[in-house]
Specification:
By secondary structure, the protein is of the alpha/beta class. The protein has two domains: 86 residues, Leucine Dehydrogenase, chain A, domain 1 (Rossmann fold, 3-Layer(aba) Sandwich); 134 residues, Rossmann fold (3-Layer(aba) Sandwich), CATH 3.40.50.720. The longest helix is centred in the C-terminal third of the chain and has 22 residues.
């Protein structure tokens, strides 16, 4: 068993991006600028956005964090998005989700200029990804594909099972893994809560990508010997033995499954850091696209 080390790989990617930023600075070019809108004070969102700010600082990007109260009106949020769309200094931006219940996330997503949609959530981005056209790929699938590529995981002709059909992870992963590309060219099965005998399908997977949001859902009986396992899930579980009072676990029972795998991502330290690295890659791409407009 070998770990697919997202933490190590993301640091390598950030070093590569920092080198490109140094070249941009040396030539007098515009430094990439990523903005984020954070609504309310959700703990997980706060941590994630703060980490993105630190990532920007590490690679030499400019960053802007816009904090809005949880009771901000949808109209005010849309106004802030419109201002970022028009701000030529901002290359890309994200609106951190989840949003308060009184705000329509679909309306917010549609309001973001696809040229600045570094989260890759807009219909334009998703449509271009589906057609295999150049676009922003949502950060988690992008990060997973980059991890598979850098570890030289053979995907062509393999059976890939994706567990979970969310529009952010599961569905785009199924499309990306089936495309005529490397990584890609896999035969893909997408399973979900209504799939009969999910365990049997998972056992047939050469590559198992799990994004279902249920801690330790995948056990050793659901994993084929020698499979590559990518665990997207991360959940806080109470643990009185930890100073924090909790521990982080994935959708895969890591200790039970690791002995059967050829490769597996840890939680934490697997997909999470790659998601953040992919956002930086998208921002660098956005800066290049803005210059070509």
């Amino acid at each position: 068993m070998q770990l697919l080390d997202g933490k190590l790989t993301s640091e390598q990617i950030k070093a590569e991006i920092a080198e490109q930023v140094n070249i941009i600075k040396a030539s007098g070019g515009k430094v990439p600028h990523l903005a984020a809108i954070l609504v309310g004070n959700d703990g997980a969102s706060e941590t994630y956005v703060n980490n993105k700010v630190l990532d920007c600082r590490q690679v030499g990007f400019e960053s802007t964090l816009i904090r809005l109260d949880a009771d901000v009106s949808e109209a005010e949020l849309l106004s802030r998005i419109d201002a970022l769309n028009k701000d030529k200094d901002i290359d890309g931006f994200i609106v951190q989700v989840p949003l308060p219940k009184h705000i329509d996330e679909t309306r917010v997503t549609l309001a973001i200029d696809p040229m600045k949609d570094v989260d890759g959530f807009s219909p334009a981005s998703v449509g271009r990804m589906t057609l295999g056209m150049p676009t922003f790929i949502s950060a988690t699938p992008h990060g997973i594909m980059e991890l598979l590529a850098r570890y030289k995981i053979e995907t062509a002709g393999k059976h890939c099972v994706v567990v979970g059909r969310s529009s952010i992870v599961g569905t785009p992963m199924s499309i990306l893994m089936s495309r005529n590309s490397n990584p890609g060219n896999a035969t893909v099965t997408l399973v979900h809560s209504r799939t009969p005998d999910m365990a049997a399908i998972c056992r047939s997977a050469d590559i198992l990508i799990v994004a279902i949001g249920k801690p330790n859902f995948i056990n050793e009986s659901m994993v084929k010997d020698g499979a590559v396992v990518v665990d997207v899930g991360i959940t806080r579980v109470e643990d009185s033995t930890r100073p924090s009072g909790f521990r982080l676990v994935g959708d895969v029972d890591f200790d039970a499954v690791k002995g059967k795998c050829s490769f597996i991502t840890p939680v934490p330290g697997g997909v999470g850091p790659m998601t953040r690295a992919a956002l930086l890659m998208n921002t660098l791409k956005a800066q290049s696209m803005q210059l070509q407009k």
